[in-house]
Specification:
Strand content: over 45%
Number of helices: 1
Shape: globular
Distance between the termini: 20 Å
Strand order of the largest sheet: 3-2-1-24
Structural class: mainly beta
Order of helices and strands: EEEEEEEEEEEEEEEEEEEEEHEEE
Helix content: under 10%
Radius of gyration: 18 Å
Amino acid sequence: MIPIDDCKLLVSCCNHKGGLYSVQIQHQQYEMKKMLNVGCTGMARYGSSFVVISNSHGIFILDENLKVIKNKPLSTELDLHGIAIDNDKAYIVETKTNSIGIYHLKNDLKRMDEIRISPENFDASHVNDLYIVNDTLYVSMFSNPLRKSLTSFSSYFPYKPIARGVILEYSLQERNIIKICHDKLYQPHSVLHHDNNLFYCVSGEFLVKRNEEDIFKCLGYTRGLAVKNQMMFIGQSESRHIETLLKKHTNVLLDCGIYVHDISTKLSSFIHIPSEEIYGILVI
């Protein structure tokens, strides 16, 4: 393993063999524990606690020891994805309806409002992840909601390399889309802001980008991203549509896990995760 500062990660895994894992890295060794045995997607820190999203079980609040202290089931029809927290409000992506639901964390997790990314009542843009900086919301999705015509999410599958995805900037004060920050992306996920830069995964290309720059390439479907100082943690899921992928890539790694990458030295290590699909990574 490359030299890594001691740290602890929270890793969410979705769909089949899903779960929530803690990964403690100490003295160049790591210890892994499964904290939840349900498929999980978005995660965010809330004070000394953590909010974790599950399509099958709704919203979990975990204490600082990663024990569940509250759970609120939500409709499984919403197709819940990413989460960001600001001022006791949880912004949760409801992908099925192109919405971001706003839930009050101090009022029994009541849904108090929403942000509509586009008016269609089906998965037209495949909104997935979000990140808040001051009053600005950065959102990743598979299709540009400002296009006049949108089709259902099923049009992106089976595997079709259509680079229509975007990262958009949304003003929480003005309640509207300010601009498209990055476009022509093939299935973007895991947007975050670090050191005045925007980082995100271009999952279908196995890439991590910093603004417009390619800074890391995985060997499989790339989703889940965290940065601490010069260390970057990148999730890789078991890839699908292998025959199609091998027409473009000379090597596809059929393992689920996390790359630990030193941005300065460009050296990496890989930690296997006993699941199939990683959704999110959080340094805690």
